[in-house]
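Why should sequence recovery work at all? Because a backbone constrains its sequence more than one might expect. Tight turns favour small or flexible residues, buried strands favour hydrophobic ones, and helices have their own preferences. The token representation captures these environments compactly. In the example below, the structure is given first.
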């Protein structure tokens, strides 16, 4: 997705009905994903493209190197943009557009399917015992949902990294499609689909803000400094507000950092990120996606103050489970299910998912934040943003 070569004026891509792409594949059309990459290669590197015998994502190539078998799970295949997500097969019109056959693509199989054992060569390459079973996984956020037990409607997983991603389990696939969300097969057909939204780049903006305020000596411990100093501020950060959706470059110049305490700016950063998250939650709630509780994973989940601010602003209990390891735990659960250790992923979570820590809203702060949130929305999302 960091390959920016595909051209937006490509005739091949312009002929696509982008709404149909979303309906068929589960994800809105994005030019930085493989359908666009393959179209670009076919147009710009024709000889190379036509000489290939296989068209695979990197994960399928890794499976091949491990087992000698090209395979991909339905979840990861969603991001390939060539799969008919409902019927669980390669979408022939897209293959015809590219001039490739389904036999040149990997096998499509469910997550948590064992695809074979490690070859001798793979054992030498990896240091793992020959005969180790290899099991198909999933896209990262659905793996984190498995690792934290976010299986039921009314729950929301928030994964905080470079982008902040929200994942809702939904009973109807169309809930995600109609709301222009990233839709994943997740536990279907016997369980829910997953509908996801993203606040892109928010992690990078936060990092830029922190780095602008800490000294060079503090850089190795910048996140600890960030959390520690923010504790010396109070809800509302002494009237500092930040539009976290704007680029971090020169952001603190606009809020006149010389006139404010560092502790207040740090807390304002935390609050602004959660205000933006609440905007998304409110938007989807108006379209029928109710949230009873939030499960938080990623770096933010290790920051107790930020987790409390999330509970206070959203007005929901925040569950902390697995921290930054949720995706890895979900992968282990799928491996256990694929090798027969667990009957299914839900049993796997029950056995290895661990305990939650629950942070409940502070009602005094929650009342204060209601007005602060309204002010934030009015200031930055009614074309009145200024510092």
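From this structural description, the recovered sequence reads:
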């Amino acid at each position: 997705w960091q390959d920016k070569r595909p051209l937006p004026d490509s005739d091949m891509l312009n002929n696509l009905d982008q709404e149909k792409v979303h309906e068929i594949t589960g994800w809105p059309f994005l030019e930085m994903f493989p359908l666009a990459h393959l179209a670009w290669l076919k147009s710009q590197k024709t000889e190379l493209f036509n000489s290939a015998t296989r068209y695979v994502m990197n994960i399928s190539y890794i499976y091949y190197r491990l087992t000698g078998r090209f395979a991909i799970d339905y979840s990861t295949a969603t991001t390939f943009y060539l799969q008919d997500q409902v019927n669980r097969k390669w979408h022939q019109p897209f293959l015809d557009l590219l001039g490739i056959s389904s036999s040149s693509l990997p096998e499509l199989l469910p997550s948590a399917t064992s695809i074979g054992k490690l070859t001798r060569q793979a054992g030498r390459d990896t240091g793992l015992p020959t005969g180790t079973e290899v099991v198909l996984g999933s896209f990262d956020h659905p793996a984190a949902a498995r690792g934290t037990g976010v299986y039921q409607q009314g729950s929301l997983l928030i994964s905080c990294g470079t982008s902040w991603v929200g994942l809702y389990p939904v009973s109807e696939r169309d809930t995600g499609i109609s709301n222009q969300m990233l839709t994943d097969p997740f536990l279907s057909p016997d369980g829910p689909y997953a509908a996801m939204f993203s606040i892109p780049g928010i992690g990078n903006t936060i990092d830029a803000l922190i780095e602008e305020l800490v000294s060079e000596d503090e850089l190795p411990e910048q996140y600890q400094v960030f959390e520690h100093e923010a504790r010396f501020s109070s809800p509302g950060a002494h009237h500092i507000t930040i539009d976290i959706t704007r680029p971090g470059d020169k952001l603190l110049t606009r809020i006149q950092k010389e006139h404010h305490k560092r502790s207040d700016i740090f807390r304002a950063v935390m609050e602004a990120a959660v205000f933006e998250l609440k905007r998304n939650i409110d938007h989807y709630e108006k379209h029928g996606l109710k949230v009873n509780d939030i499960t938080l994973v990623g770096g933010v989940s290790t920051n107790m103050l930020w987790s409390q601010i999330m509970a206070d602003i959203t007005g929901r209990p925040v569950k902390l489970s697995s921290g930054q390891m949720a995706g890895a735990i979900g992968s282990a659960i799928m491996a256990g299910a694929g090798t027969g250790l667990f009957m299914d992923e839900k049993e796997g979570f029950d056995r290895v998912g661990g305990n939650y820590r629950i942070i409940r809203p502070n009602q005094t702060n929650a009342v204060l934040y209601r007005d602060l949130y309204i002010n934030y929305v009015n200031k930055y999302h009614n074309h009145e943003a200024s510092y």
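A few observations help interpret the result. Residues 262-286 form the longest helix (25 residues).
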